[in-house]
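**Protein record**
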Amino acid sequence: MVMPTRLHHFIPAWIWEGIFRAVNKQLLVAVKTALWAAGLAPLLRLLFKGIWSGLGANPIEFITLSTGTWALVLLLATLAITPLRRITGLNWLVRLRRLTGLFAFFYGCLHFITYIWLDKFFDISDMVRDVVKRPFITAGFLAFSCMIPLAATSNTRAMRRLGKKWQVLHRLTYFSAAAAVIHFWWKVKADIREPAFYAIALAALLVSRLIFRQSQGS
């Protein structure tokens, strides 16, 4: 039981630091691998169901709902990483934020492509009428439009070039998530339990952010 303590006295600190750094690196690789697998799982599920005729009576509706839901879930997961890091003290969690956000954008793109291709067949005039006359479509377009600059500036080069403006720009993530929740809520109309759950999750994330900012200011 006392062996680790004795070893600590005989092994230089820089060796311990190297060991911990190597362990953390391996852990990060394992977590990123799991994140890649989790991020691609919904797409593989759709492909599997498509091959085996498991998309139901309305395949377009199934694909639209699935891709949109995963875009929202991953967007909320991206927002949850920072408060989770603050609570756990695991700073390496920040390195998962970019990948999670890009997966959210990926499913947002699939959701948008399903709408303009499979649903509207690239009929621009019909899509414009949808945006103007159907509020939930307007909210969806706003959510997706906000995700575009977020994805485009998610790289290190953009962070360096924008400086402090980068953090201001990436507050759009909250606006995008809010618009996505509204889009989902207005879409389902009757059974609002699932969008309500996402709304509560987003509200909790916003409250945690406000509490942290107030604690920093005090």
In short: Residues 1-9 have pLDDT under 50 and may be disordered.
